[in-house]
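Render this sequence as a predicted structure.
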Amino acid sequence: MSTNENTATTHADIYTKVTSAIVNAIESGIGQYRMPWTVRQDKGFSPISVGSAKPYRGINTLVLWAQSQSKSYSSALWGTYKQWGELGGQVRKGEHGSPVVYWGTYDTQSADDDDERSNRGLFAKGYTVFNIEQVDGCKLPKRFEPKLSHNERIGHAEAFRSGTAEIARSIGLLLQRQCTCRASINSRTR
């Protein structure tokens, strides 16, 4: 089998895994969707890579959302077997991971010495990731710990809101709660 055929087979396998994950999520039905209003770094809206602390993007977000929904995972942290191992964790025996795809580019030089143009190619590489709820004994880095408690965050938000309302009153704006959530100027308060 040539390298090109091997690459084509690998790509087809990645596409098949991702497509199967999405189809299974659709067929199983997700019920009524509820927005996770409690958003923390470890329980966020977007799936987060434990290796880079960055959110997954593109089709990976959709696949990991579907997996989280179908398996009832409450955490948004995902990582490869190796990444969890580096953090002292062990994926539990019998757990199945979820497919993600890394897309990248590469440059190749043309065979002609006279032609110095480089050609850019696109590649896809598949990985299997596991949610933190599938892992035992993991010690997360400090960057994933909430910096403020829930009550402290609420306190900061309330202080900000009352501060902005006071500023608005001092410059003659009347903030009104409307369906469109817009501030309006009341000429009677001037």
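Summary. The two ends are 81 Å apart (CA to CA). The CA atoms of residues 48 and 54 lie 6 Å apart.
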